[in-house]
Design goal:
The model has no long low-confidence stretch (mean pLDDT 98). Helix 4 packs parallel to helix 5 (100-113), helix 5 packs antiparallel against helix 9 and helix 7 (172-188) crosses helix 9. An eight-stranded mixed β-sheet has the order 8-9-10-7-11-12-13-14, with helices on one face. The chain has a six-stranded parallel β-sheet with strand order 3-2-1-4-5-6, with helices on both faces. 34% of the residues lie in helices and 25% in strands. The longest helix has 18 residues, at 299-316. The N and C termini lie far apart (40 Å). By secondary structure, the protein is an alpha/beta fold. The protein contains nine helices and 14 strands. The protein has helices at residues 11-20, 36-46, 55-59, 76-85, 100-113, 127-137, 172-188, 277-288, 299-316, and strands at 2-7, 26-32, 50-52, 66-69, 89-92, 117-119, 144-152, 193-201, 204-213, 219-225, 234-238, 241-245, 254-258, 265-268. The chain folds into two domains: 2-121 and 277-294, Rossmann fold (3-Layer(aba) Sandwich), CATH 3.40.50.720; 123-274 and 303-316, Dihydrodipicolinate Reductase, domain 2 (2-Layer Sandwich), CATH 3.30.360. It holds the Pfam family GFO_IDH_MocA.
C-alpha cells in the first residue's frame, strides 16, 4: 500500500483524490491546506485520517511516501522542491512549473535525490491513448504527417482570477495548451521550430495558435484559448489513414481509425471515475519498484514540452514575474 499526501484542497485536488479510492494499493493518508478548517473539511469528505494547516507539517509526516501537488501553477516549483527535499516522491500537476529553468532544477533535484518525480499529464495513462500510441507505433495509419489538437473555452474575464493573472502563471497555454502540446510531443517528439500567433489580455495569452514543425516535414497545428468555444478534439493524420478523437481528446472514451477502402474501426472505453486513477496506479507501480520516473511520461519529455511552451510564450510576449 502506497501512502499519499495531498497538497491543496481545490477542484483538481478534489477530483483526483476521489479517483485515488479506485486504486486498491493507494491510500490517501493526509491532506494539507493553508486553512486548517479547509483541510479538515476535505479530509472528512474523502475519509482521510490526517490533516494539516501547513504543507511543511505534512511533509514532516514520516508515513507519507508520495506527495500530490495540486496547488496553483505559481507554487508548483516551491512545493515540489520541498517535498523532494523531505524525501518524498512527487506527482505534480501540470505544467510542472511556470518556467523551464525551474522545471530543470526540479528534475535535477529528483535525480540527485534518487526520488520519483512525474508531471500529472493524466492523458498519457488513459487506456485509449495508450492504445492509440500502440496503433501508431505499429504503422496502422502509416507515418504520422500531422497532428491537430485544440483546447479552448470561454472564461469570464476577471483580472483577480488565476487564469488572467501573470503572477499566478495565468493564460491559456499553461492551463489548457499544455494538453495539445504534450499530445503532439507524444506522437512526433520535440519540434525543430515553433511559430505562434495569439492575443494577450492583462499580460497573459488569452488565445494562442502554435505551428510545430519537424525535421521530416511533419507538423502539428495546436491551439488554446480562454475566449473561444473550441471542440477540444484531436486528429492524427498518417500516410495510410487517420485517427479521429472526438471531444474531449485529453480524456477520450472513444476514437475512430479511418483508412481508405476499409470500414471505420471504432474503439471505446467505459470510463469509471474521472479518469485520474490510471496515472495514480502508474505512480504506485513505479514507486513500489524503486524507479524514479515513468517511461510513459519521462522527465526528459516533460522538459521538452516545457521548452516548447516557453518558446511559444516568449514569442507571444508573455513574461511571468
Amino acid at each position: 500500500m502506497t501512502k499519499w499526501g495531498v497538497v491543496a484542497t481545490g477542484r483538481i485536488a478534489d477530483v483526483v483524490t476521489s479517483d485515488m479510492a479506485l486504486v486498491p494499493d493507494a491510500e490517501v493518508l493526509a491532506v494539507s491546506s493553508r486553512s486548517t478548517p479547509k483541510a479538515e473539511e476535505f479530509a472528512g469528505k474523502h475519509g482521510i485520517p490526517r490533516f494539516y494547516g501547513d504543507y511543511h507539517d505534512m511533509l514532516a509526516d514520516p508515513d507519507i511516501e508520495v506527495v500530490y501537488v495540486a496547488t496553483p501553477h505559481s507554487s508548483h516549483y516551491v512545493v515540489a522542491r520541498n517535498a523532494l527535499l523531505a524525501g518524498k516522491a512527487v506527482l505534480c500537476e501540470k505544467p510542472i512549473t511556470v518556467g523551464l529553468k525551474d522545471a530543470e532544477k526540479l528534475v535535477e533535484l529528483a535525480r540527485r535525490q534518487n526520488l520519483f518525480l512525474m508531471e500529472a499529464m493524466w492523458t498519457r495513462f488513459n487506456p485509449l491513448v495508450r492504445l492509440i500510441r500502440e496503433l501508431v507505433a505499429d504503422g496502422v495509419i502509416g507515418a504520422v504527417r500531422s497532428v491537430h489538437a485544440d483546447f479552448g473555452a470561454p472564461f469570464e474575464h476577471d483580472p483577480a482570477h488565476r487564469l488572467w493573472d501573470p503572477a499566478a502563471g495565468g493564460g491559456s497555454l499553461l492551463d489548457l495548451g499544455v494538453y495539445p502540446v504534450s499530445f503532439a510531443h507524444m506522437l512526433l517528439g520535440a519540434p525543430k521550430s515553433v511559430a505562434t500567433q495569439g492575443t494577450l489580455i492583462d499580460g497573459v495569452d488569452a488565445e494562442a495558435a502554435l505551428m510545430l514543425r519537424y525535421p521530416n516535414g511533419a507538423f502539428a497545428q495546436l491551439s488554446s484559448s480562454l475566449v473561444g468555444y473550441y471542440p477540444i478534439a484531436a486528429t492524427i493524420v498518417g500516410t495510410a489513414g487517420r485517427i479521429e478523437i472526438p471531444p474531449v481528446f485529453y480524456r477520450p472514451t472513444e476514437f475512430t481509425v479511418v483508412r481508405p477502402g476499409q470500414d471505420d474501426e471504432k474503439h471505446s472505453l467505459e470510463l469509471t471515475g474521472h479518469g485520474y486513477q490510471y496515472q495514480i496506479a502508474e505512480v504506485n507501480k513505479r514507486v513500489q519498484a524503486g524507479e524514479i520516473e515513468s517511461p510513459h511520461m519521462p522527465l526528459d519529455e516533460t522538459l521538452a514540452v516545457m521548452r516548447t511552451l516557453a518558446e511559444a510564450l516568449d514569442k507571444l510576449g508573455v513574461s511571468y514575474p
